[in-house]
Design a protein that fits this description.
- The chain has a single domain, classed as Farnesyl Diphosphate Synthase.
- 69% of the residues lie in helices and 1% in strands.
- It contains 15 helices and 2 strands.
- A two-stranded antiparallel sheet has the order 1-2.
- The radius of gyration is 18 Å and the shape is globular.
Length: 300
């Protein structure tokens, strides 16, 4: 049975298992010099997380008939960028956290210098993976994949969002300012995960590309809104990271800006918008629709 034929929970589990195997294979062995750095890279990436971004890459790839062999490489690149961002975000000079995915953060388990190098090395490896031969339908499409990941990672993406987050600590943000920060910090990489998955298969026309991009923007923002709700409403044990940290650090969140109830309503509205964006695709977009539900309705 192919992954596509499975129901959603089974499909999600199959993709997560496939990605764990792919990441295990694609990350440098701890037996290879520099051993400690490679050990720390594997510690940061393996055995943790829901793999939401790879799931989105696979779902977008399913929409365009992309081979799974391409998708696992592309998804691994996206996941390595995500893992690198978490390693750096957790460091004392950033968010200064000690727990991630239910275990000590990389700088705690190893040291700060190693954590810094882990992020650098994972970022480089991600772009190396996107240069693998015949990863997309054409060389032009493959260049678009590289560009999408670079934009999502840089000053107009995650790095820029983190800079705004640090600058705004202890300051109130308007809802448009908050939305802009999270479009950069969280939404950009989620959007890239969808775009990159779609580049692995048959080309979409202009209107279809716009619908898919609209979906990606909605789920990217919804992910952050739900993250803020869970940080306010969840526990450290269920989240696998320190709950309530944003409030303790005086960071602007959707909960602090609009209250818990309205933040939940916003997440639900974004879910509806994501579903509406997928309507032109019909059943081909079933996995993407299911992932929108998973992202908004998740409890951890």
């Amino acid at each position: 049975m192919t992954i596509e034929a499975l129901d959603f929970q089974a499909w999600m589990g199959a993709v997560q298992a496939r990605m764990e195997s792919a990441l295990e294979r694609l990350l440098p062995s701890p037996a290879v010099v520099p051993a400690r750095l490679h050990e720390a890279m594997r510690y940061a990436v393996l055995e943790g997380g829901k793999r939401v971004r790879p799931l989105l890459t696979f779902a977008a790839g399913e929409l365009v008939g992309a081979p799974e062999e391409r998708l696992e490489i592309a998804a691994a690149a996206v996941e390595m960028i995500h893992a690198y961002s978490l390693v750096h975000d957790d460091m004392p000079c950033m968010d200064d956290d000690v727990l991630r995915r239910g275990k000590p953060t990389v700088h705690v388990e190893f040291d700060q210098a190693t954590a810094l190098l882990v992020g650098d090395a994972l970022q480089s490896l991600a772009f190396q993976l996107l240069c693998e031969p015949e990863l997309a339908r054409s060389s032009a499409a493959q260049l678009e994949m590289v560009k999408a990941l670079a934009l999502a990672s840089g000053s107009r993406g995650m790095a820029g969002g983190q800079a705004i987050d640090l600058e705004s600590t202890g300051k109130p943000l308007t809802l448009p300012e908050l939305e802009l920060m999270h479009i950069f910090k969280t939404g950009a990489l989620i959007r890239a995960a969808v775009v990159i998955g779609a580049q692995c298969g048959e080309a979409l026309d202009g209107p279809a590309t716009s619908h898919l991009d609209r979906y990606a923007k909605c789920v990217g923002l919804a992910f952050q809104v739900v993250d803020d709700v869970l940080d306010s409403d969840g526990s450290t044990a269920t989240l696998g990271k320190t709950a309530g940290k944003d409030a303790m650090q005086g960071k602007a969140t959707y909960v602090s800006a609009m209250g818990l109830s309205r933040a939940k309503e916003l997440a639900e509205d974004l879910r509806r918008q994501a579903h509406a964006a997928l309507e032109p695709f019909g059943e081909r977009a079933a996995r993407l629709a299911q992932l929108a539900d998973f992202i908004v309705l998740r409890k951890f």
